[in-house]
Amino acid sequence: MLMPWRLIASWGRFINHVAREFPGVVAGIRQAPLKRRSDAKKKLFRGGHRSKDVEDLKDIARATIEFDTLEALLAAREFIKTKRSFKDLDHTALKDRYTPVRAGGLGPTDQGYQDIKFFLLMKLDGGRRHIVELQLNLVGALMAKDVGHPFYDVVRLGGTGWDPRLPNSDILIPSDVAQKIGSKLLHACHECIHRSVEPEKARIVKSMVKRKFFRPVYARYADGRPMFDDNRNRNRVVDRYEPRVGSVRLTFTTPADVEMGLALSEVSCAAYSYYNAYSRQYRYRTANNIHDWW
Question: What is the rounded CA–CA span in Å between residue 134 and residue 63?
Fold first, then answer.
């Protein structure tokens, strides 16, 4: 049985231990909430049968340490490699996208995203153990991820080598994913338009997001009559948009659909390039949230 308070305490001490080794170059810490019991159960019984024990789930607890410089990021990677929490697992417990493939790493994604991901073994009282996930990254890469990743989350559902110009390129977004990603996509489109990052392509994607992921709720007068913005054309006034319930299917059968599909990939790549360049203009000297939790 998972004992979350003990895991959080042990996990928090480890994160602080790493952060204290690099004063002045850690820009912050992002900690995700513990994985919900329902999500953990789905992962345990993926494929209809139990495939692993709770102790072997690799993302019960997750966190990211943000670094100001690449030098500090790589130094932290080597520091964590010396720790028992890493050594108790094997070399597959490290996924390094800052190291090119030719040097033994994974290299960046097609969109340009990079991170360093560790899986670490946290030993608790009573002989219990849990594997947790710790990511190391630069501030700029995380800024890029916030904007560029929602587009990529859709594209990757199309599978390896997805291309909207090819036959049978439809993308089915499950209902649980669609509920989470709609608002993120809308925010990402607004950011790209505001910062002139492929704004025309971002507008194309925004139009699709509003149509596919949200439904309009039309304004009415107090007596229940619908509002129109023009009595001549009878266009109903939209009061707000609400997320649609259920899965979302993106089809690419018309030239306009294909243009939208290509825009998804292009905006994602452009966002990563923009924010990586943008972040180099700044330097973060102190973290604003280290040591606040424990």
Answer: 5
pLDDT tens digits, residue range 55-77? 456 667 788 999 988 888 999 99
Q: Count other C-beta atoms under 10 Å from residue 145's C-beta.
A: 20
Q: 99: which residues sit within 8 A by CB, 6+ positions away?
A: 105, 106, 107
- Would you say 153 and 113 are in contact if contact means Cβ atoms under 8 Å apart? no
Contact criterion met (CB below 8 Å) for 142 and 148? no
H helix intervals, 3-102 = 4-20, 37-44, 70-81, 84-87
Query: Per residue in 202-260, pLDDT tens?
Result: 999 999 999 999 988 889 889 988 888 876 677 888 888 888 889 999 999 999 999 99
Domains and CATH numbers, the chain: 4-138 (3.30.460.10), 145-278 (no CATH)
pTM: 0.68
